[in-house]
Every structure is written in structure tokens, then in C-alpha cells.
Q: What sequence folds into this?
């Protein structure tokens, strides 16, 4: 009697089918060649071990529990909230490891779409998943689309990118955040009519553009007596923001409010103090950090609009773990908009 087919020795093709990869990928893994992501390697070895292709004593089966590498790509520069976010990712490494993930943080030149797109492509060669703060630009969209086409999950944080096929966005509803800023300024400013201005990091960030639109919308709708006299870009740099604020105060001595859409709050505060205007110009900004905490405490800032860095990192990590484990996921809702005043300051984190 012929031996049953069910007892035949498994082949490379059997391993490839079980791991849902090509036979070429199986060959690269089993022969120790580079160019295969860690979770793919783990999946191939797991299939090979379960099918009996590898002997249980084979030391390669010890790699079955390999961690998936998640690359976080963030802009460098003077945005202290983004720097804080990077530190929290590193601090939460033990939490990631419990999800069988290994986080890696890389900083790229801020406001440079080409540098960001290159970093996404480069990290995609080895990472099992990528999360990054997006710039709205065709190069970035193309880099994301290429990775998602190859099955590498991509998520955006803080600022999103349109029509790129990313798996999720972990950030605020920025149009709503801009409306909140306009509402706060209008409620804090005692006199009517009044003049206010904005300083953005860069409108290349979709988040900053949406915040501007929301800010303008609510003032037009509910507070038409408040005039917006200018929008300037400071690239989240404290020295640049200080210069921009000085110009605004010189051009508009009766300025009543300033909305700092991005980072660099300390630069705005210095200009206000230099002009002795820190008590009569209403100052609303974004990102709760050590410096904005101090500005709230000394009364220079009235309010800070923020999102929890820890919640952002944890939600992103959980989604990546689900995607890499091929569990079903749903598009997460926008992060909760938190408004912090001096009287409700939370305890510092980390």
C-alpha cells in the first residue's frame, strides 16, 4: 500500500502557503539571508516548525517569538511636544515588548517633505510597521502608498495625510481644535471689537492648516467683531516665533490675542514680556510641555490645547500589534481634545 499523502514530508511550498509568503521569501529565511522583516521571519519559522519542516531541536525555532519593529518617524527641531512624544515612546519600550513589538524612534529634518518621504521608504525596508507625523505632500503620499501596497501598516500621528491608504490617524480633529482656540480667545478678550493674530509652525502640516481654518470659521460665525490681522509661520522655532511676535506687536500695538498653532511657545512669550504685554495679550497655544506648564503658571498663557502623548503612543502601539497579528481593526476616532488651564494642570508625566 502506498503511504498516505498526509504523511509526506512538508516542502518549501507548504511552508510558503502556511506563512502566506512566497517560496523565495521562505528560501531567504531558511538560508539566513538578509532583506526579510522580523515578523515575516518569525511567521516563516513558526510555519516551518509547526509543519515539521524544521526539527524541533533546530535553534532557529527559538526565533519564532521575534518582536516586530515599529519605526516612529518624527520631525526634529524646536517643537518640545514632539520631542516629549519621542521620549515617551522610548520610555514605554517595556510596554511595547509585552505586545511583542520593538519601537525605534528616528528624527528627520522638520518641514522637509523630501527628507520625510525618503525616511519612510528607508525605514520600510526593515520595519514591520511605521508611524510618523505627516506632511501634506505628493512625495509623502507616494511613499505611504508604496508601503501599504507592500502590506506594511502605516499610521500617522499629530498630523495626517490625505488619500495615501494609511491604516489609522492618531491625532486631534484639528478643525475642531482651531475652533476651540478661537472660542477661548474670544471669551478671554474683554474688549470688543478686538484684533488677534496667528503664528503657525508650517501650513505644510495638514494639522496646522486645519487649525487655521477652524479658528477663522468660528470667529466669522460667532465673533465677527474680532479681526484677524495676520498669519505668520515660525517653523516651531522659538527665536523665529519671537521675531514674528515682535513684528505683530509693532504693526498692531492694540493686538488683543495671539493663537500659536504649533510649537515655539516660549519665543512668543519672550516677545510679549519684552513689550510688557504678557498680561493684556490673550495667549492660547498647543502642546502641554514643561515650558507651556510654566507659561500657564505665571499667567503668560491662558490655555493650552493638547492631546495625551501616552494615549497617542499606546493607541498606536495597540493598533500596530493587532495589524501585525492580522486581527481585525477599525479606524480609531480622533484623539480627545484636552484644554488645560492653570487651575486644572495635570501632574507632570515622566
A:
Amino acid at each position: 500500500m502506498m503511504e498516505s499523502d498526509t504523511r509526506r514530508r512538508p516542502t518549501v511550498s507548504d511552508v510558503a502557503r502556511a506563512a502566506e509568503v512566497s517560496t523565495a521569501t521562505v528560501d531567504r529565511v531558511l538560508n539566513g539571508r538578509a532583506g526579510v522583516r522580523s515578523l515575516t521571519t518569525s511567521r516563516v519559522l513558526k510555519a516551518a516548525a509547526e509543519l515539521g519542516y524544521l526539527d524541533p531541536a533546530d535553534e532557529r525555532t527559538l526565533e519564532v517569538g521575534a518582536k516586530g519593529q515599529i519605526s516612529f518617524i518624527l520631525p526634529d527641531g524646536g517643537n518640545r511636544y514632539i520631542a516629549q512624544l519621542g521620549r515617551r515612546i522610548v520610555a514605554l519600550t517595556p510596554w511595547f515588548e509585552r505586545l511583542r513589538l520593538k519601537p525605534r524612534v528616528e528624527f528627520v529634518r522638520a518641514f522637509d517633505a523630501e527628507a520625510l518621504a525618503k525616511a519612510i521608504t528607508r525605514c520600510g525596508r526593515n520595519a514591520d510597521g511605521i508611524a510618523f507625523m505627516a506632511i501634506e505632500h505628493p512625495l509623502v503620499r507616494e511613499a505611504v502608498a508604496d508601503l501599504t501596497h507592500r502590506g506594511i501598516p502605516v499610521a500617522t500621528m499629530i498630523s495626517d495625510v490625505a488619500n495615501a491608504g494609511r491604516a489609522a490617524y492618531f491625532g486631534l480633529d484639528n478643525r475642531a481644535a482651531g475652533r476651540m482656540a478661537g472660542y477661548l480667545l474670544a471669551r478671554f478678550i474683554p474688549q470688543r471689537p478686538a484684533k488677534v493674530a496667528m503664528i503657525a509652525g508650517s501650513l505644510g502640516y495638514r494639522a496646522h492648516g486645519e487649525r487655521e481654518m477652524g479658528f477663522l470659521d468660528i470667529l466669522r460665525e460667532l465673533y465677527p467683531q474680532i479681526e484677524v490681522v495676520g498669519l505668520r509661520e515660525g517653523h516651531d522655532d522659538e527665536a523665529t516665533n519671537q521675531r514674528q511676535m515682535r513684528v505683530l506687536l509693532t504693526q498692531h500695538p492694540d493686538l488683543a490675542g495671539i493663537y500659536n498653532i504649533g510649537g515655539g511657545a516660549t519665543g512668543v512669550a519672550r516677545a510679549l514680556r519684552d513689550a510688557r504685554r504678557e498680561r493684556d495679550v490673550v495667549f492660547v497655544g498647543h502642546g502641554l510641555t514643561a515650558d507651556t506648564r510654566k507659561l500657564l503658571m505665571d499667567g503668560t498663557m491662558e490655555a493650552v490645547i493638547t492631546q495625551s502623548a501616552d494615549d497617542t503612543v499606546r493607541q498606536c502601539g495597540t493598533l500596530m500589534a493587532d495589524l501585525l497579528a492580522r486581527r481585525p481593526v477599525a479606524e480609531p476616532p480622533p484623539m480627545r481634545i484636552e484644554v488645560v488651564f492653570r487651575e486644572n494642570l495635570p501632574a507632570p508625566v515622566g
Notes: The first strand starts at residue 68 and ends at 75. Residues 1-6 have pLDDT under 50 and may be disordered.
